[in-house]
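Hi there,

I know you've been waiting on this one. I reran it after we fixed the sequence typo, so this is the corrected version. Both the input and the resulting structure follow.
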Amino acid sequence: MEPVARLDDTFAPSIAFGLMAVLNDGADLEVETLRRIFPGDSGGLRDAIRRLEAQRFVVVDRRLLRATGGDWVRSTRKGRMAFAAHLAALREIAGADEA
């Protein structure tokens, strides 16, 4: 299969791609922290989280911490595997495997 065909459209929006890059180590981050990492369009961040969550690439967990609530996001094993495959296809397209 050609590498372009292996690209996952879920990661096409730059915020979704960036979210997976930040969450790729399996750590979980609070949405407020993600808003600081990806400033600007909070609607775009929310849409990217929903997009990734719909594919089960991330999970959103509501936690109570010091009497305040917050949504936390973490990547799933499925999401990390899909992102790794997407990155491998990008590297192949860019010719990184030819070196």
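Quick highlight: Strands lie at 28-30, 58-65, 68-75.

Best,
R. S.
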